[in-house]
Amino acid sequence: MLMGLESLAWDDKLCAFFNIPKSILPQIASSAEVYGYFIEGPLKGVPICGCLGDQSAALVGQNCLKQGMAKNTYGTGCFLLYNTGTRPSVSHHGLLTTVAYQLGPNREAYYALEGSIAVGGQVVRWLRDKLGLIKESKEIGALAEAVDSTAGVYFVPAFNGLYAPHWDPTARGLIIGLTQYSDKHHIARAALEAVCYQTREILEAMSKDSGISISTLHVDGGMTVNDLLLQLQADIIGMQVGKTFHCSNIFYNFTPLSLSLSLCLIYLPPLYHSSPRVHPLPTLL
């Protein structure tokens, strides 16, 4: 909140606004340099030489190091970062502009657009704990896969409002399109599609802000064990969805103790390809 995005230094106006003297703030360093050394314990003498926040670490861990590459982390909520290159892209469509990483003090900083979704995996937990549709979260895939569509059912899991790109804390959840034919399978599938539609909405906002299109969305997080979710995501956004090994812990691939910044990341071939089906984005009234 106090750093200038372009200067990468403490901003005089922001520090003055919050009445924080710059003299008490630490020195800003890059994401990859030697900050110090362990002074005791089994790691004594080992350099501390890498530091990234969790979502930036996931972006680097997914090897999204070029402009136009994006990753989405599917956890309790979802967090999508989109590499916009070496110049910050100011959003006009409800996204946040942030520094993604700077891999060395003499290297250029890379920036990202960030969009967050309040309810991702939490919707599965809600179906389990509040409605009792499943006993364990892992059962959601089989339940949703028992039907080949939602039969017109749509789920908006705005339990705590909507985050990007709407930023509406007054929004509330709804399930619409129910008929006598609807059952728990349609609701389960609509819940998974809800996560995918929210992701698509953020991707569309990112494309409008940056003018850069992407061909593959890289994914990680606990929900990515669900193959149906990832296939639905590929279909709804109309692009490939690429998943790595150990996708639930992808941020560890940043290897923060590595002097060489070697990203030993093994990729699976893109597993989820978009189908010819068209998925219009539902309009929230």
SSE-based structural type: alpha+beta
Order of H and E elements: HEEHEEEEHHEEHEHE
Largest sheet: 6 strands, mixed
Give the % helix: 10-25%
**Alpha carbon gap, first and last residue:** 33 Å
Beta-strand portion reads 15-25%
Number of helices: 6
Physical arrangement of strands within the biggest beta sheet: 5-6-4-3-9-10
What integer is the average pLDDT?
A: 87
Rg over alpha carbons: 21 Å
Which key terms come to mind for this protein?
alpha+beta, two-stranded antiparallel ribbon, six-stranded mixed sheet, single chain
Task: Sum this structure up briefly.
This protein is α+β, with helices and mostly antiparallel strands and 285 residues long. It has six helices and ten strands; from the N terminus they run H-E-E-H-E-E-E-E-H-H-E-E-H-E-H-E. It is 23% helix and 16% strand.
Describe, in plain words, how this protein is organized in 3D.
The protein is an alpha+beta fold and 285 residues long. Helices cover 23% and strands 16% of the residues. It contains six helices and ten strands; from the N terminus they run αββαββββααββαβαβ. The strands form three sheets. The chain has a six-stranded mixed sheet with strand order 5-6-4-3-9-10. It has a two-stranded antiparallel ribbon with strand order 1-2. Strand 9, helix 6 (227-237) and strand 10 (240-243) form a beta-alpha-beta unit.
